[in-house]
Amino acid sequence: MNREKSDIYFNGLGMQTGNEVLNLSGFKEGQFPFRYLGIPISHKRMAIGDCSRLVEKIVMRIGNWGARKLDSVWIERICRNYLWSGGDQYVKSPPVSWENVCKAKKFGGLGMIDCRLWNVALIGKYVWWLVIKADHLWIKWVNHVYIKDQDWMHYQPTNNSSWTWRKICQVKEQMKAGFNNGRWDNQDHCSVAGGYAWLQGVQHKVNWWPLVWNRMNVHKHSFILWLAVQWRLMIKDRLIKFGIIADATCDMCMIQQEDHHHLLYGCQFSVQCWNLFRDWLKINMPLVGVLEWGVQWRCRSLLKKQMIMAAMAALVYQIWTVRNKCRIDLQLPRPCRVIAEVKANVRLLNLTTM
Ligand SMILES: [Zn+2]
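^ thats the input. predicted complex w/ zinc ion below
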């Protein structure tokens, strides 16, 4: 019996039957080398070549999963491309910066999470634990190995420190302005959400957010209205700035230059639509600056106001849709058809009798 077999045979309770060795546990004798999960296993020391397949698998998995799905920049790019193109590719300059997209809706954004800032806020939790010297094994270990008797707020990592520890120290520098005498931003606790809000900085509420994010709005209407109130629709005066087109003449009236004000209130077609809209709802609203009026408008019935705001959002969406179709087929529908579409969109029941 050679050594390779004896290593398996002398396991305490072995029985030999012919060429096979069975034991009470039911294991069957094998021989070196053999493969386990595709990797060659031998009693000899493995060469680099033996491990190459294992290394390839690990690298492939890191490339596809770790380096991509765990990378906050990559996640952000996927979200941004999907928002502006509906796919994973988008090479143009986005109408709204990602920083503004990630603001809360009441501050003018879409309420998306900024993955990079959220990641910093998560790491900030560790920084906070070190500030308050939390009773945690990891905190004790870090104090013993790295910080020792130094003041954590003034501590600087050495070049020999691990990558993870240096990242934590970077976050400490980024967030230290929020720590004051052992308190976080004048609070006795540090939540990830609180740290994230602090990292976003001081933000100001926009007065149009109840109009845009009115609960009765159709989502796609809200999105176009969100761009329109910020003058971020991709209309001709913006396309000229980017050098995409040379002529900014409005395709709907073929007379004036197309900009946001013209599209919404100045174009003959838009004016006719708003006229019909006002006649339908029987409310005293201006024809120019109706969105600004809607923001300020006081109505006794919140429900009625919400329904009329939803109808306004639907009309802005329809005007934008007509404008885009007109660029291709150079035909305009009758304004009454547009209002009929608005009515179908928002399904206003008994609105005119409220
Ligand atoms: Zn026009």
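Residues 213 and 219 are 8 Å apart (CA to CA).
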